[in-house]
Amino acid sequence: MTTIYRYCPRCAQPLQTRTEGGFARQACADAQCGFVWWDNPTPVVAAVVEHDGEVVLARNKLWTHRFFGLVTGFLERNELPHEAVLREVEEELGLKGETATLIGHYSFERMNQLIIAYHVPARGEIRLGEELAEYIRVPPEKARYWPAATGFALRDWLLSRGFDPQPIEMPARRKA
């Protein structure tokens, strides 16, 4: 989730909205300070994991709905995205990824993330990592996608394989 600053983290002056780099940004009111909160998206990798001819979808322990999605994770400092996605597949599913083939990149505005999605054929026995509650296996011809960043990655991969994926309806989000 994006942090919202009200005061400058350098000099404690109130931030104000002004145009920087062609976008409205929060910036320090003190011109000598010069702080600008760029609010750049966080890069996240996602894997369409293919195991024994099926797509493996997982449910994070923190998700309040029983929803299954792609394995995702953050890049570590100095890590390449294709290395990160193989690491995440091994950490979260206990599987050894054979390759990581780029599907595409997708904006996930709600979390201010840039999703870099890969197809990862994997081998081994599934052993869930500490972040996952459960998983399901879906034959590609029966897979459906959700209307968000990682869902679009799954859709695009399925289309590239000659399937005609259909969208699923997402549960309504509760307002806080």
TrEMBL record:
PROSITE patterns recorded: NUDIX, NUDIX_BOX
Lineage of producing organism: Bacteria, Pseudomonadati, Pseudomonadota, Gammaproteobacteria, Nevskiales
PANTHER family: ADP-RIBOSE PYROPHOSPHATASE-RELATED (PTHR42904:SF12), NUDIX HYDROLASE, NUDC SUBFAMILY (PTHR42904)
Names of required cofactors: Mg(2+)
Organism whose genome encodes this protein: Sinimarinibacterium thermocellulolyticum
Coiled-coil intervals, chain numbering: none
Domain of life: Bacteria
Protein name: NUDIX domain-containing protein
Keyword list, A-Z: Hydrolase, Magnesium, Metal-binding
One matching Pfam family: NUDIX
Residue ranges constituting the Nudix hydrolase domain according to the UniProt record: 40-160
